[in-house]
Amino acid sequence: MNRSKIVAIITGAISLILAIAYLILVQLLDFRGEMLPAPVSQLPMLLELITG
User: Fold this and answer.
1) Does the pLDDT value for residue 15 go beyond 60?
2) pTM of the model
3) d(Cα 52, Cα 38) in Å, to the nearest integer?
4) Residue 42 is inside which H or E element, if any?
């Protein structure tokens, strides 16, 4: 096999590994549950610091 075919096979394998790793990462992050908004109890204090 010539060099260009070997490089193409290696880059294709790396691409597949990255794609599978990305899908696994997304699934793990999705299992964490529902995304909740940040608490707003600290909001008035933050506004005072910004405008003060």
Assistant:
1) yes
2) 0.58
3) 23
4) none
